[in-house]
Each structure stands twice: as structure tokens, then as C-alpha cells.
Amino acid sequence: MFSSRRADWLGLFSGLSLLAGIVLVVVELILYSRTFGTLAPGLSLGGVPVGGLTDAQARQQLTTAYRVPVELRYLNSPIVLDPTTVAFEVNGNSMLAEAGQYRSSQGFWNGFWDYLWLKPGQVNDVQLKFTYSADKLRAFLQEVASRYDQPGNAPEARVGSLGFVAGTPGHKLDVEAALKAIDPVLRAPTGRTLDLPVVEQKAIRPSFDTLADLLRQDLYQFQFTGTLSLYLADLQSGNELALDMADGQPVAGPIAYSGMSTIKIPIMTAFFSQRDGPLSEGEKLLLNRSIDESQNTATDGLLTLIGGGVTIDAGQKYGFEGSRRVTATMERLGLPNTYIAGLLDVFGAVTSPRATPANSRTDINTQPDPYNQTTAEDMGSLLVMIENCSRNGGALLAAFPGQFTADECRTMIDLLTNNKVGAIFVTGGTPQGVVAHKHGWDKLPLTNVADAALVFSPGGKYALTIYVHRSDTMAFDDANRLIISLARAIFNYFNPQTASSQ
Question: Which of 116, 124, 232, 409 could cross-link 389 (Cys pair, CB 3.0–4.6 Å)?
Fold first, then answer.
């Protein structure tokens, strides 16, 4: 009797338990079926968590996250970038369509099983899909730059001290760098702040244009009414300045001048292009007397050797051939306004004058020596070539492969450096450093003076040539003071600290 009742109770309990289990499964199934219509647990769209949300809820949460303005900071100034300003839009539909694959790939019953056993959902992130206008972002940044940039002021010429009024520092937005930096911030749902890349502009150095203004003002101070040409080349940056003045007014160059003794630089260059090996004692003597002592007789001896003569007195025909080869060397180097047509120390030992672009102009005529001419640009360019060659590069080596060596070019610079003439011309305007130069002037009454130099100063290396002409003659001291003043202004440009301490 007892066993029968126990069996009835067990059966009833089992039935109730089964019923309860079925009810529980049905309840869980109903609950899961509701969640199966939402996005998978652990899912995020573009870094925004959307697991368990409906498509509509996820779309709203995604949109809200990416509508948060980006905070930009220009130094200490905050700037708000509303994403709509750059037409930023999230493609939620495309992202939700991709998110659906994580739900369908698992299947209903597999998902229900994991749900029953409380297994965590797989963490997945759908990559952000978006668009925005780079042009509108650039326009926004340019507007920011126009409001917040404070460019430094450029230096100004100060003729009283042959120097410059210092420029002031500033800052400027780097728009290109900002475009790249903002892009990842726009596509991030959090941490939407950015320090804009701002370039600090330190004290601005004067430009060659500012230097040219100083040189023109200096010439006005001297009330110089003749013709002057100045060529300057920065041997480190390669920047060039060509200044030509006639009767106090800027004019276009080049202008032809008498070569005077500065023609000995092209003659020396052509000599080294004709020979190989160590210099003989006789050749050293000729070069020293030509450059250092400026002897025309020694220079004619070089022309004879250049022309193929065995000795320096081999005859005028070799000297004439030497002058032709010097001119041809200059043409090959792209210096068409520089030539020598004869000998320097033999009266009447000349050949035919030459027409050049510089001496063919009709608006300016310095009445240059018809047999010995150059321009400030030609002579300065030749000095640049020699200096480049001394460092095993440049046009000399390119135009005459195998005919020049760095050692030969250093020898030429040494010869020019040994030309000690005291504190006149470019040397007089260069208080520190080394000046390698060849100067020149014509016989009295003085109408032409010139100096062609390589300057190695503490603050920079440069080539400087200055040619001056006056048809009504000029005092040597006046011409000397003028060239010294111009050279000092240029020295101060390259050596501002030295200049300020003077």
C-alpha cells in the first residue's frame, strides 16, 4: 500500500518536474526568441557597443556617438569642429547589414543552447563606414589659420648700421599636417580631442630681397651716380643676388665691364685646364706673380703656355692662341660675356674684339676695354665653380671631365687668398674670416674698379663680385669706401651676431 502511494507521488513529482522543465524551456525560448531579433551580444559598430540592441537602437547609438563635436586646440585656444561642418556621415545601414552575419552564422538553436548555458557572446566589431568632405575640412582649417595664425614680421634693412632690424617670431598652422591628424579623430567614437600641429616661427632671418634693399639704400647714401653691378652667391644654400644700378636706379643686367686684372681669374682657370701633375717652380712663380703681384708680364707668360708655347717668350702667336683658349673655356662654362683678345703687357698685341650679349645692349655702355671684358655675374659664377670644384663637385668638373682636380681648385683658391692688399675693397669690408680675391682698376684717370672674391666668414661662405664704372672719373678713396661699405653690409648679413657686437 505504501509502495503504491510512493510510486504515485514519484510519478506526480516527475510529471510536475517535467512540466516545470518544459515551461522553463518554453519561457527561456520565448525570452531568447525576443533577443534573437536584436544584435549579437558583444557586437560593436565602429567601436560603439550595440550588443542586445535592435537595429533602430543601434543606428541611433551609432549616430549619437559620431555626432559628438571634435575639440581642436590651437595652442591654448579651443575650437569646436562639428562633424556636419565637413559633411561627416556614418553609413549605418551598410554596417548593420554586415552585423547581421554574426547573428545568422550562429543559427537559432546553437544560439539558444549558448543562451541556456550562459555562454558569453563572441566579441566582434564592424569597421566604421563613413564619408566626409576633405575639401570642406581644408576650408575649415584655412579659416582657423586666418583667425589664429600670427606670422612673424620680416626683418627690415637699417642702412645706418649696415644691418637689419630684427624680425619678430610667430606661429602658423600646418594645414597639411592637420588634415592627416584630424582624420583618425573623426573616425574615433571617443577621445575626440586634438592638439593642432602649429609651427613656431622663430626670429626670421632677412632674405636676399631685404639684403638687396639694404644695398640699394647704401648706394643712395653715397649718392653714387655711375654704373655698378654686384653679384652674390651663398655657397651653402645656392641662393643668388644680382644687383645692377645705373645713375642711382635699378636696371636689368648683365652689364659689360672692363675685365681689368680680374680677367686673371679666367686665365688661371684655363691654365689649370691645360695641364696635369705638380706645378713646376717656373709655373708657380708665374701664377704667384700674376695673381698676388698682378704682373701683366707674368700673365702674358701664362697665356703663352696655355696657347702651346714651350717657354713664356715663345712668341705672340702662342699668346694669341692662349687668349682664344681662355675665351673658349669661358664659353664652355656658360660664361659668354667674359673674354680676353690679346696680351696684357704688349702694346698693340690684340686680336679682334668680340660681341657679347652684355656689350651688345644699347641702353647702357660703360665703354669697356674692347679686348678684355667680363660681367659681375660671369666672374662670380666662375668663382662659385672653382669653390665647388675644390670640394670635388660642380660645373668645372662636369664641363671638363678629367681636366680639373679638387687639389688644383684648392690651389687656385690659395693663390687668390695670398693676394694680400690690405684693408681695401672686399677685404676692407670683411672684419673676420678669409678673403680669396682678385681686384683690379684701370689707369688714371680712374673710371673702373672691381673686386672678385670668395669669402669664408664665421657665419657663411659666399662669392662676391663688385664692378664700378664712372665715365667722368672717380677718386680711388671714394670707390674704395663704396665697395667696403657694400661688402660690410653683406658680411653683416651672414654674420648678424658679429655685426651686433661691433
Answer: 409
Half-sphere exposure of 100 (CA within 13 A, CB side): 8
Chain-wide mean pLDDT for the chain? 86
* Type of residue at 442: D
- Residue 78: CA count within 13 A, CB half-sphere: 7
Judge contact between 350 and 342, C-beta under 8 A: yes
- Contact residues for 411 (Cβ-Cβ < 8 A; gap 6+): 272, 279
Q: Give the Cα separation of 373 and 460 in Å (integer).
A: 29
Angle among Cα 121, 123, 127 to the nearest 5 degrees reads: 140
Residues in the chain: 502
> 400 with 385: CB under 8 angstroms?
no
Convert the pLDDT of each residue in 226-280 to its tens digit.
999 999 999 999 999 999 999 989 999 899 999 999 999 999 999 999 988 899 9
Instruction: Return d(Cα 418, Cα 11) in angstroms, integer.
Output: 126
Amino acid at 155: P
Q: How many C-beta atoms lie closer than 10 Å to residue 492's C-beta? A: 24
**456 bridge partner residues:** 434, 461
Cis peptide before 401 (omega within 30 of 0): no
Spatial neighbors of 393 by CB under 8 A, at least 6 apart, are none
- For 212, the grid coordinates are 638687396
Residues 344, 290: Cα–Cα separation, whole Å: 11
- Give the whole-angstrom CA distance, residue 197 versus residue 69: 19
Q: How remote is the C-alpha of 103 from its chain's centroid?
A: 57
CA angle 332, 336, 337 (to 5 degrees): 145
Give start and end residues of each alpha helix (H) in 117-154: 134-148
Contact call for residues 351 and 414 (beta carbons, < 8 A)? no
Separation between Cα atoms, residue 497 and residue 502, nearest integer Å: 9
Q: Which long-range contacts (CB under 8 A, 24 or more apart) does 29-38 make?
A: 29/112, 32/111, 32/112, 32/115, 35/115, 36/103, 36/108, 36/111, 36/112
| Lookup result for grid cell 522553463 | 24
Q: Minimal CA–CA distance to 229: which of 370, 421, 358, 395?
A: 358
Structural domains present in the chain: 2-69+88-131 (no CATH), 134-201 (no CATH), 208-501 (3.40.710.10)
In the chain, count H helices and then E strands.
17, 21
- pLDDT tens sequence across 445-469: 899 999 999 999 999 999 999 999 9
